[in-house]
Amino acid sequence: MDKTAKRPLLPAFFGMKCPNCRTGFVFQNKSVFPLGKTVALKDSCNVCGQKLTSEKNNGAGMNYALTVVIFMLNLLWFCPLYLALKENPNESWYENNSVFWYLGSSITVVILLQPWLMRLSRMTYLYMYFVSGAK
User: Fold this and answer.
1) Contact (Cβ atoms closer than 8 angstroms) between residue 110 and residue 67
2) What stretches pass through the bilayer (predicted)?
């Protein structure tokens, strides 16, 4: 592979690579642990030298949007599961505890995915910032 050719966008994005060269790793730790340093960025890319700390937003808005998407995806799998496992066909969703099961499972999934959602939101803002031409 030619050294000047960039890697494909999506594998570089999900691999948490530099938005400029798509080779260098963006975060200080490759793992999401320790949780206190989950979204700690390097000052610059160790491959191309691109400054990575120029992002103005910490990604809180995108993190909220990703959390809502996770809740909607949970609803997509929970509704068919609820209908398949419903004991009484005449029973409405508000007459049993299905809403609480949905909320409990969704909140659990969002809490477990939160470190990765925070990183994805930071990567989304980095890629939006650098793809728009700002350096």
Assistant:
1) yes
2) 64-84, 99-118
Say what the pTM is.
Answer: 0.70
Tell me how far CA of residue 14 lies from CA of 23, 47, 59, 110, in angstroms. 12, 18, 16, 18
| Residues 38, 32 contacting (CB under 8 angstroms) | yes
CA torsion 13-18-23-29 (nearest 10°) is -90
Residue with tokens 């299905």: 98
pLDDT single digits (tens) 19-63? 888 888 988 888 888 877 887 888 888 888 888 776 565 566 777
3-state secondary structure of 14: helix
